[in-house]
Every structure is written in structure tokens, then in C-alpha cells.
Design brief:
Length: 438
């Protein structure tokens, strides 16, 4: 038996005669009346087990997007079912913040005559990446009085894959335009960019004299220069660090979220440039991997691989990571390490093994900078703020020193705020391609 709020109101209404006639018998009689009403309502309510429920749900949705979870309720019994249907998705407003989905309208009232069906829709708004799971649907059928009914929970499993938001997509058009300029497909020509021979053309003022093709000039009896284009069909390996340092929060999100956005933007840009893109998420073991050679399939592959990646509270196994890189790359490639520039983590692990990577590959380290650190450095109005500024200044100097040591070993270091990391990394990739360093 399931009681409703109306049953509570009926019971409270009995306080009036009880107050007027304060006798034990009056209380007993009113209690029996309430129980009888509830029993009659339960007896006349349709059985919730005679309702067949099916679920229709998209396979995936992007973070912060809205998706509809549709339930179809069919009445296989002989009575009209006056029901309340609750689609049991975990709410996003839980105190612990662990629920990946918030249900805006979790309860639906439906009247389903015998042999008919009704459709109810729950709007879901994901608040974190990963798999949002709903196991059951609770159904409560009410009697004609609406004071009581029957309730049952039916197993109607559903799973929604929440993909990364890819908010850095807004930077893609401008970077693709610069890429077309490098490739010579736009009206603006970037002379001398790249290292692969493209074509011959007449010399114009401003051309680099080192590009003059003297043999072709002698044949044509006019000055001819060679044009170049950026290298294509290079290998780009994105390594997303998922160790404990990626769990640190910068502003409103973890470092890992900024790394995911940067990996998506660079992966799509490199695929449009004709390079082969591969990704691994690693700490002490491979958490995810993706690879696709077709530009239109790179983004779905990367998003699907990164959807379920979460920080692990372990230290990065840097020798193991170098072994993973070597096992995947047989020739020179661009290796992008999306990790933290934390001095302790870099000095105790990465510095000892990064030389083995830079000897064979072009290595870029992309790290998230904390904007609050700069605020601490500049605020010095009180004694407490002065001490905070001194600690922030020391941290900045240590990070700068680690960056210098990495650059001495041949690593390109990119450090930016969470919103700027993705475009800064894309700009670094375009600069390396234009300089012929891939």
C-alpha cells in the first residue's frame, strides 16, 4: 500500500472532531474510517504490474546539452490506470556531487485506459562526463479517491554516454583558416613555410632568394622560385595524463577537463591538416585509447575515448609512458604531453626520461596555469596577503625553472589558463608545422 498526500490531509481533518469530542472511542473510529478508505482505494486501483514500460534513449549527448529520455507506458490490464511515473535518473543536485545527470521533471501523472499507451518524457541535463545510468522506473497507481494506491519498481535499464562538451570548438574556424593559408589554399600566401616541395612560380618582390630554383630559371629565362607547403601525413600522439595532478581543481573544473578540451581541438586540427592522430590516456596504465586516420571520424573517436576518463589518485609511471610512446611510434612524430608543470612531479619523474623522447620526436608539454596564483602574487594589502604573495611568487619561480629545464632538453612548453590552453596549443602546433619541425 502506498499512501498519498491526500491521505495525510484526510487524517488531519479528523483532528477537528477529535478536538470537539475528546473521547478515546472517537479517535479509534476515525482511524478505522481512514484505514477503510485507504483499503478501498487500494482495492480499486489498477495493478502497477499490468503496466508494461519501455525506454527510448539516445546513445550519447554532449556535456551541458539537453536530451530527452522517453518512457512508453502500456496498460495490459482491464482497469484504467491512474498512475504516477517516476523515471529514476540520479539527480544532479546531490550534496556529494556524484550524480552525472539531473532530471528536471522526474515525476509524470498519466491516465492509461486498458489496451492503450502513453508516452512521458524526462529532460536530462548532464553535468559531468561519463555514463549516466538509470536502473528502475517507479510506478504508483491510485484509486478513485486518490488517498492510497499500489506501487512497484520495474527494471527498465538505461545508459546515457555523456561526451566532452568541446567548448574549444569556437577556436577551430580561425585555426583552420590559418592552416589553409599555410597550405596555400587561401588567397594569402605564406612564403617559405613548410618543407615539402609544392610547385614553381615566378619570382616577386619579397621572395626569399634562397627559394630560387636556378635550373628552372635557366630553362625558362626568368627568375623562378620554389614554393613549399607544410608537411602532411605526420603522426600526432596526444598523451593525456590522468594521474593525481590532473585531479587538482583550477577555477571551476579539474585540470583534466582543460586537457580534454585541448586534446579535442588539437586532434581535430591535426586531422584536417592531413596528419594521423592517436590518443592515449595514461597514469600507471592505459585508461583509454583512440586512433583514426579519417578527419571526419577523429572527433567522435576522441570524444568517445575521453568520455569516461577520470583522474586516478596515483603517480604517473613516466618510464612506462615512454615505453607506451615508443611502442606506438616507429618514426619521428609530434608527442603532446597534456600534464601538469608541477615542479615535484616533473623533477622526480619526467625530467629523467624526457630526453629519450626528444631525441626521436618533437615533444610539446601543455599545462594548465592557475589564474588565482597571479591574483595571490599581486594582492599585498594585509600581512596575510603578503605571505600568500611570497608563497605564490616562489611557486611561480619554481614552475618557471622547471620550464627552462624542459626547454633545455628540447621540449616545447605551453602553459596557459584553462580557457586559453586549447587555442595556445593549437597555435604552437601551427607554428611547428609552418617551421617544418614536425
Amino acid at each position: 500500500m502506498a499512501l498519498t498526500s491526500r491521505a495525510v490531509l484526510v487524517a488531519l481533518a479528523g483532528l477537528v472532531p477529535v478536538a470537539l469530542l475528546p473521547a478515546p472511542l472517537t479517535v479509534l473510529v476515525w482511524a478505522l474510517v481512514v484505514v477503510a478508505l485507504c483499503a478501498v482505494d487500494v482495492a480499486l486501483a489498477a495493478s502497477p504490474r499490468e503496466l508494461a514500460v519501455s525506454r527510448r534513449l539516445p546513445a550519447s549527448v554532449r556535456l551541458s546539452g539537453t536530451v530527452a529520455a522517453v518512457l512508453t507506458v502500456r496498460n495490459t490490464g482491464r482497469r484504467t490506470a491512474r498512475a504516477v511515473v517516476r523515471d529514476a535518473w540520479p539527480p544532479s543536485t546531490l550534496p556529494d556531487g556524484d550524480a552525472p545527470t539531473g532530471a528536471r521533471t522526474p515525476r509524470h501523472r498519466v491516465d492509461v485506459p486498458p489496451g492503450e499507451q502513453r508516452v512521458v518524457t524526462t529532460a536530462l541535463v548532464p553535468t559531468r562526463r561519463g555514463d549516466a545510468v538509470a536502473e528502475r522506473v517507479a510506478i504508483r497507481t491510485l484509486g478513485p479517491l486518490g488517498v492510497a494506491g499500489r506501487q512497484v519498481s520495474l527494471d527498465v535499464p538505461g545508459r546515457l554516454r555523456v561526451l566532452p562538451e568541446f567548448a574549444s570548438r569556437r577556436h577551430l574556424p580561425s585555426r583552420l583558416a590559418r592552416l589553409r593559408e599555410l597550405d596555400g589554399r587561401a588567397t594569402v600566401q605564406v612564403r617559405g613555410a613548410g618543407t615539402e616541395f609544392d610547385s614553381l612560380r615566378e619570382y616577386v618582390d619579397g621572395d626569399d632568394v634562397r627559394s630560387i630554383d636556378w635550373r628552372a630559371t635557366a630553362r625558362r629565362r626568368e627568375v623562378v622560385v620554389r614554393t613549399w607547403r607544410p608537411e602532411r601525413d605526420r603522426h600526432v600522439l596526444l598523451v593525456v595524463d590522468t594521474s593525481r595532478t590532473s585531479a587538482a581543481r583550477v577555477l571551476d573544473a579539474t585540470r583534466l577537463e582543460a586537457s580534454v578540451e585541448a586534446a579535442l581541438l588539437l586532434g581535430v586540427l591535426a586531422a584536417h591538416a592531413g596528419d594521423r592522430v592517436e590518443l592515449i590516456a595514461y597514469d600507471r596504465r592505459v585508461r583509454a585509447r583512440a586512433a583514426d586516420s579519417h578527419s571526419s571520424r577523429v572527433l567522435p573517436a576522441l570524444a568517445e575515448a575521453l568520455a569516461g576518463v577520470q583522474p586516478a589518485l596515483v603517480e604517473t609511471d613516466w618510464p612506462g609512458l615512454v615505453g607506451q610512446v615508443r611502442s606506438r611510434l616507429s618514426r619521428r612524430a609530434l608527442v603532446v604531453l597534456l600534464t601538469s608543470l608541477d615542479p615535484a612531479a616533473v623533477e622526480q619523474g619526467l625530467l629523467d626520461v624526457v630526453g629519450g623522447l626528444t631525441r626521436r620526436h618533437q615533444v610539446v608539454l601543455a599545462s594548465v596555469a592557475d589564474p588565482e596564483l597571479e591574483q595571490l602574487r599581486t594582492a599585498r594589502r594585509t600581512v596575510e596577503e603578503v605571505f600568500d604573495a611570497a608563497a605564490a611568487e616562489r611557486t611561480s619561480l619554481e614552475r618557471a625553472a622547471v620550464g627552462v629545464r624542459l626547454r633545455q632538453r628540447g621540449v616545447e612548453v605551453v602553459e596557459a589558463s584553462p580557457d586559453d590552453l586549447a587555442p595556445r596549443l593549437a597555435d604552437t602546433y601551427l607554428a611547428l608545422k609552418a617551421a617544418g619541425r614536425l
